[in-house]
Structures are given as structure tokens and as C-alpha cells.
Amino acid sequence: MSDRKPLILITNDDGYQAKGIAELINAMKGLGELVVFAPDSHRSGMSSAITTAHPLRARIYHKEENLTAYMCNGTPVDCVKLALNEFLERKPDLLVSGVNHGSNAGISVLYSGTVAAALEGCVSNIPSIAFSLCDFTPDADFTYTARIAEKLARKVLSDGLPKGICLNVNVPVGEVKGIRMTTQTQGKWVNEYQRSQDGIGRDVFWMTGNFENWEEDNVNNDEWALANGYAAVVPVKIDMTAHDLIPELKEWEL
Amino acid sequence: MSDRKPLILITNDDGYQAKGIAELINAMKGLGELVVFAPDSHRSGMSSAITTAHPLRARIYHKEENLTAYMCNGTPVDCVKLALNEFLERKPDLLVSGVNHGSNAGISVLYSGTVAAALEGCVSNIPSIAFSLCDFTPDADFTYTARIAEKLARKVLSDGLPKGICLNVNVPVGEVKGIRMTTQTQGKWVNEYQRSQDGIGRDVFWMTGNFENWEEDNVNNDEWALANGYAAVVPVKIDMTAHDLIPELKEWEL
């Protein structure tokens, strides 16, 4: 296999036309053979959602040397699963997801389609990294993010990642001071809806909100790093078991 | 507050008309004041997906003493968020989700809307439990599951759960030998698509598949418990950080 270039699977949740995935594709071009398998439209906030009630479709929208790009009518996790099960001829050496337009730090790891795609790679034992820039505008500047993505991709291609763990990388706007290895900031979104009315006066609710940080003084988490000009890397596990609690639960009288 | 009954928020991912949620409502009736806030149709496999691109709506479909039931056009997590942000007059003392028609053991914790609803309760510091029966038929027999749900709900209402941890409870078909506290079985779904054709001969892919268990010999995980006639309780964390890996990541030269 040493004569073959590494195979890199690329996806996102903003859809195949987003600037973020174009920049990520460019950043990966020197590293191997690329297959893009991305949603055919915006699929933000889809978490690890999978499509069971209707069929998936995929088609090639671009092809050049060392790059084949598909669009698919599924979620980010559908894209990863369908690519691995039905479209790729060999197992990828790396999966990269993003670059997301907007932060996926803190509790957003639960809701993000970008991170979910990396978790899905991880489920299939593929070293996987999710990238997000803390700027949700369509024409965001990905200059520093692309450099960081290339650097981390090279490292992970060379050294791998432990089984069951992927990386969630968030990058602040503007010049980046460096890269910090951090924890997922504990906190939650608050004031999550804006009440409005439809055309005939019925209440409707639009998602909005702001993040309430429960660890303002913690200098080791991703929100602190981002607020202080550092890119934040959180290792994220697919085993969600709270192992420490099991001995206590076993004492329960039921 | 001691003169008020406990407030219990109930949701699911199979939709408000599913037998599983009706049985869960019945099981909770002796325990407090109930508010149901459930999807208006099937939302299986939605994980922690949230709706940002279109507005949410909710309306009461049933009301009786100590029970108000809403249906909502969102995902399970939307239902929990909208109920907590806009519809409930006080914070629930307990959130229960399900009973799901079908297993949510092992890696399904990542994809399940039922479990995601409990995780969302957990994000808001509400003791939360997801219940699933390993039978996906619409008329499944929830007799034992209802008893287990009542027992666990009473325990959690009385003693609470640690911050950031909810319970994922799966129940086998038939008579249940007891309740085991377990870990999330490591493994993955394989053979995930059935290729078919649409009416004009284009390839489409339907999700299917079977679970590949990587821990066949582990007697402490949820798949073992279920296969041996026990209900399986997994404590699930919202902090997905792989804390143990951070020291090693800090040594990376980038």
C-alpha cells in the first residue's frame, strides 16, 4: 500500500457549495487523494441524525486528478456512512469535516453536524478531525484555519489517533496565536427562541440564543482558548458512558 | 414547593401517537403532574438535531387533570428546548423520554432521538431518563418496560442524578430477569445500505444494517445484559471530552 497516496474523505454540514469546504479541500490537496462526499444543501445542527424514512442518492459534481467530489441528499453522518459503505474502494486514512461556518465549541459538540461527521469516522476507526471557524458569514476568511487544518491533518495522518477518539478543532477569527489542547467547555444555550407570528397570527418560534458559560475561570477549556486568540482542539470520545458512576448505580435498591 | 406535585416532562422520538409514549404516560401518572411535549410525527434517528431554518409550532392535543399534552413540529431535542424555554411554568423535576419502539443500546446512543432528548434534559440540569424496548413493532408489549420505568423514575425523583449524566435504559422483549447497570457496548453498524432503484432506474440507498459487537465477551455492557434477559441501564455523559488523552496531545509538536 506504500505506493498509494493516503485517501482523505472530506465532508461538512454547510453543504457542498460552502466556502468552508472549498478551503478545506484546498488545504488537503498536497496530502493525498481526496474524495468529497458532502450534503447537497445546508444541514447545520443535524447532530448524528440518520435518514431511515426516505432513500439516499448521491452523484459526482466534480472530478479532477486526485479529487472526486459527490453531493448527497443526506445528513453529514449519512454522507460518511454512504461513502464508506457504497462508494469508496478503500478505507480512508483520514476524515476531515468542515470547515464549518461558525463555532462548534462547548456544548455545540452535541448538536453539530460537522462534529458528528468526525464522530462517525471515528466509529469506523478512521482518524477524524472536525474544523470550525468562529465566523458564520458565508465569505468568512479561512486563511489561518486552512493552515491549522493542514498542520493537524499531516500530524494525524502520520501518527493516527487512539480508537474511539476524534478531534474537534475550533479556530477564532483573525490572527491565531497558537493551538491549545483543551476540554469541552461546560455550559448551555439560553434564551433559545424568538417568538413571532405567521401570516395569520399564529405563534411560531425561531431558534436563537446565547451560550452561558459555566466555567468562566477555567483556562483549560475551548471557550477560554478561543476568547484568548488560540485555536482549541478537544479530543472527543464516542463512548459516552459515565464509567465513574456505575459502582454507585450498582448500589441502588430497585 | 413541597405542596406541589413533581413536574414530569415526557417526550419521545416516535411521535405523540406511538404506543410507547402512551404507556410511558400511564406509568408516570401516579408520580406527579405530567406535561407531554412530543413530535407531531415519527422523528427516529434524529440524534440531537435542532431546527434552525424554519420556525417551530406547538399546540395542545389533550388535557386532563395533571396532564397537558402538546405536539410540536420539531425534533425530540427541539421539543425539550421549546417546552423548557417557552411553555413550562416551572422547571421539571424529571424528564422521561420514550418508550422507544426498538433498541437504543450500544452505539445507537449517538443516533437516537430518544436518548438525545434525555441528554438535552441533562444539559438543563434536569434528572433525565431515556427508555427503549427492543421491539420496533407498533403494537409491542410494554408491560415490563412500564414497571421498570416507574421504578427508575421514582428512584431518580427521590435521589436525583449527578450533574451532566442521564440514564439510557433498554429493556429486552419478554419477561425481564432484573436490572443491570452497564457500559455502552462498543461496536458499530455494518452493511448499512440496501441499494435499490427509483422508478426511472436511478440508484437509491435505503438504510438497513446489523450491529457488529466488538465486545462479545464483556459481561458488563448493555448488549450482554439484553441478550441475557436483563434491562440495561447505562449512565451517559454530556461531556464527551477524552480527558485522558489531553496530556499526550499537549506533547504534540505542531
Automatic annotation (TrEMBL), chains A, B:
**Pfam family, any one:** SurE
GO cellular component terms listed in the entry, alphabetical order: cytoplasm
Name all Survival protein SurE-like phosphatase/nucleotidase domain ranges: 8-190
- How cofactor binds (record note)? Binds 1 divalent metal cation per subunit.
What reaction does this catalyse?
A: a ribonucleoside 5'-phosphate + H2O = a ribonucleoside + phosphate
Q: Which residues of this UniProt protein bind a divalent metal cation? A: D13, D14, S44, N100
Question: Which coenzymes or cofactors are required?
Answer: a divalent metal cation
Q: Which UniProt keywords apply?
A: Cytoplasm, Hydrolase, Metal-binding, Nucleotide-binding
Quote the function comment for this protein.
Nucleotidase that shows phosphatase activity on nucleoside 5'-monophosphates.
Q: What is this protein called?
A: 5'-nucleotidase SurE
Species name: Fermentimonas caenicola
Upper lineage: Bacteria, Pseudomonadati, Bacteroidota, Bacteroidia, Bacteroidales
